[in-house]
Amino acid sequence: QVQLVQSGAEVKKPGASVKVSCKASGYTFTSYYMHWVRQAPGQGLEWMGIINPSDGSISYAQKFQGRVTMTRDTSTSTVHMEVSSLRSEDTAVYYCAREVAAGTVAWFDPWGQGTLVTVSS
Amino acid sequence: SSELTQDPAVSVALGQTVRITCQGDSLRSYYASWYQQKPGQAPVLVIYGKNNRPSGIPDRFSGSNSGNTASLTITGAQAEDEADYYCDSRDSSGNLWVFGGGTKLTVL
Question: Does pLDDT of B1 surpass 60?
Answer without folding.
Answer: no
